[in-house]
Fold each of these.
Amino acid sequence: DLIEPAIFEIKLCQGRNVIITYAPTAILTGSNGGSLTLDIGPTEKGSNGVSFTTNNDCNFITLLRVGGTLNVPGTVIPGVYTGGFAITFNQE
């Protein structure tokens, strides 16, 4: 299986502080009635609540990668699982 992080693009002017917050888990719902838990994080900048400073000009896009762990029990119901999660970026 191919494993890819979620990738967000952040475009802010130099010297801005960004605080990242997100729920620690997301529930994915199966097409046949099952559910899976996705443990979210950390990001490449750190864990939930981390703050970092942008360090380039206003036209540069900072990429932020977010990892996670999908918990798949041996008793999982086959199907297509969908869901999502939100990450909040607050600037100072």
Note: The mean pLDDT is 87.
Amino acid sequence: MSQLKVNSIVPVGGLPSGATAGGIIQTVSTVKKDTLTVDVASQSAYDFTGFNVAITPTTNSSKILIMATVSVGWASTMPFFMQLMVNGSVCTDAVGDAAGNRVRSSMGGFQGHTSGIETVNLSFVHSPASTSTQTYNLAFRHDSSQTKNLAINRSSGDGDSAQQGRFASSLIAMEMGV
């Protein structure tokens, strides 16, 4: 896994006339190219803390654009859910409203084949209202009453054939001035 940090992205010609703020202040990203397989118990979440980005906003008014692309394979056909985490807790601004027994999620999908894989994307603007470091990662859940096997960056079957693949997942945080 590699991390990249870029500071102060400003157009080559400088800011437009009269501009005093805005633009991308800094970007932090990580890419996971290897695979990971874990068991996820029923009614619990796998908090994938090993795949994260940490960014320290320069002002309290900055917004953080989070972009994630993750490829996951489950060992069962079923719905699955992912939640954006910030500083070890669910980012409540990035999940749907509560409604009965429904799982509040940031993104998700349906594993339609036991040897399949789904690539899921997320874009979300977070307003931390802080200059403290913000650490973002993802947590994974499923709806089965049994423990299920989760594979990241590969299918759950992972057979050695041209019908199977290996993938890369990325997580990006961009501080935006306002």
Note: Residues 34 and 146 are 26 Å apart (CA to CA).
Amino acid sequence: MTRRELRKHVFTLLFCCEFYEKNEINQQKELYLDNPEVHLSEEQAEHISARVDLVLEKKEEIDELVNNVSENWKTDRMGKVELSLIRLGCYEMKYDDDIPTAVAINEAVELAKIYGSQEAGAFVNGVLAKLV
């Protein structure tokens, strides 16, 4: 499985987390990762789950960073697709030394183009670029 495919699964789970209470997130992760239609090895599922946990641990810090650079669009007003991708991209930029900033931004933008509105890619790019 490619890094992009793994990232897509992380994004999907982060997006799903927006609809559940904090105490339900682990159960939702298990349901997703154990779904036979998702086709994940145990190692891939562990990687995805760990990455989701890391992003969620930094969620408040990430939201504060994003709110400091976003003009007129604070995190509580953003679409859930865009917000999930911005959080993932910001995490990769600020806390993961293995992922170059340009790659983190590009990957978030590409996923936004697939899963977001027509303007989602530009919006995600604009916010993440301000965090550099």
Note: The longest helix spans residues 42-57.
